[in-house]
Amino acid sequence: MTSQPDFFSFHHRRLSWVILLTWALVQLAGCSNSVTAVKTSDTGGNTNRIQGLDLGPRQGGDDANAVADVDATPLDNTPFACQTCVSDADCAVGQCVEIGCGWYCALPCSATGGNSCSTTTSCQTRRHWDGNDTTVCAPAEDACAGLSTRRGNSPDSIDGSDAATATVVAAGGSSDQPLLVPSLDFVVVGDTRPPVPDATSSYPTPVIRKIWKAAEAEKPPVFFAVTTGDYVFAKPTSKEGAAQMDLYLGAQSYFCRKSWHCMGNHECTGATDSNCGASGKDGQPTLYKNFLSKFVQPMGFEQPYFTVWYADNAHTWKAKFVFIAANAWDSTQAAWLKGEMAKPSTYTFVVRHESSEATDGPGVTPSEDIIAGFPYTLLVVGHRHTYKRLGIREVIVGNGGAPLVEQINYGYVVIRRRPDAAIQLTSYDYLSHAVFETFALAADGTEAATP
Q: End-to-end alpha-carbon separation of the chain, Å?
C-alpha cells in the first residue's frame, strides 16, 4: 500500500520556514539601521559617532573635505557595523584590521574569489592588528567616519603597528624611555602654504591631502612623520592663519600615525629674520600663539623646540630627533640644544626650517655652530620650496604644496633603516611615486653605498 504525504505536516514545515526567513530579514534590517554615521558636537569639540557608539574625538583640523564627509549618511544597509577593536579577541567573528585611521572588526574573504562580500564592501588587503596584511570584506576608508581611534598627534596615541609592544609616553619619549617602533621607517613632508598672504581659498589642500594619503599607503609602512615648517601664509594678526592651520591638519588626518612639526618663519611673522617668543623681537603674535595651541601643545610640548626619541622593541638602536625653532631663538634654546645634542644615541636627526644657506634666520648660524660640535646623522630642513640635497648630510624637503621654485614636482621623502644599519633616503613624486633621488648615510653621517 502506497503511503500518502501528510498534508498538514507539509504545510506546517513550510510555515516554519516562512517564519524563520521573516525573522532573519528583520534582524538584518535592524543591524543595517544601527550603523548610520552621525557627527555630533558638544563643548569638547567635534565628536564622531556611529549611532549608539561614541568613538571619541577626531584628530586633526576642520577640513570639510576630510575623512568625516559621510556624516548623517546610512552605510547602504551593509552589515558592516564599524565595531572597534584592539585585537581579534574583541571580534565575535572576523579579524581586527585597520580601516581609515581606526581599527575595526571585518569578515575574512579571499581576494581570488572565495567568500563573497556585501554590495557595499569589497575584498581588500588590510593591515591586521599583528602587523601583517590580510584580506577582509571592508568598506571605503571613510565609512566609519575615519576616526584616529588609536593613532594621531595626541601624546597618548600608540606608535607602531603592534599594539601589544608599542610604548606610550608623553612628549615624544625620553632617552631612557623612547617610543618603540618595529623599524626606523618614517616620512618627511615639507612646506605647505598658499602663494600670497591670507589667501585661504587658495590653500593647497588637494596637494597636501594626496601627499599624506601617499605616505599612509607606503609599503612597507612608515611609522611616524616629520614636517619642516611653513603651514600658513597669513598676516601675523590675521584670523586666516588659524583657518589655514585647520586645513593643513584636516588634510594630515589621512595619515594615521604621529606627526612631529617643526616651526617655520611663517609661524612667526612670515619674514625669514622674524624671531618670536617671550624674548624675541617680534613677541607673540596671533600666528605664533595659534601654532603653539594647534601644533605644539597637542604633541605634548610647550615650546616650539623639542626632542623626540625612538627605538626598536629590542633596543638594538636608539634615534633622537632634535627640532630647532630658528624663528624663536634665544639663549635658553641655545643651552637646551647643547644639552640635547650631547645625549648619546645611535642616530641623530636634526630638524630645522631654514637651511644652512638661509643665514638671516635668527637661529640658523648659532644652531649650526652648536650641532657642528656633536655627531649627527642628517640635517633635515625646508624653507626653499623644492627637494634638494645640500652637501653630504643636509637635505631640503620643501615641496609639500607651497609654490615651487625649481623644476621638481610636489612630493615627500621616505627614510628607512637598512639591515646594514645605514639609513636610506628616497624622495618621491606625490602623484606618480616616481623617484627623484635615493642616497644612503651611515649613522655618523658619512656616505654609505646606495644599491
A: 88
Q: 411-417 and 185-189 as β-strands: parallel, antiparallel, unpaired?
A: antiparallel
CB burial readout 279-317, b (16+ within 10 A) else e? ebebeebbbbebbbebbbebbbbeebbbbbbbbbeeeeb
| Backbone torsion region of residue 77, taken as left when φ is above 0, otherwise alpha when ψ lies between -120 and 50, otherwise beta | left
This prediction has a pTM of 0.72
- The contacts of residue 241 (CB under 8 Å, 6+ apart) are 232, 234, 235, 286, 287, 290
C-alpha cell at 71: 556624516
Give me the number of domains the chain comprises. Answer: 2
* 363 and 406, same domain (yes or no): yes
| 215 neighbors 26 (Cβ within 8 angstroms) | no
> 364-371 and 331-342 are packed helices; what angle lies between their axes, rounded to 10 degrees?
20
Give the least confident one: 108-117, 279-288, 299-308: 108-117
Q: Examine residue 220 and say whether the peptide bond preceding it is cis (omega within 30 degrees of 0).
A: yes
For 433: left if phi > 0, alpha if psi spans -120 to 50, otherwise beta; the answer is left
The 10s digit of each residue's pLDDT in 293-312 is: 999 999 999 999 999 999 99
Owning domain of residue 231: 170-448
Domain identity same for 350 and 218 = yes
List 136's β-bridge partners, or say none: 108, 124
Q: Are residues 267 and 370 in the same domain?
A: yes
> What is the Rg, in whole angstroms, of the alpha carbon atoms belonging to the chain?
25
Asked whether 55 and 102 are in contact (CB, 8 A), the reply is yes
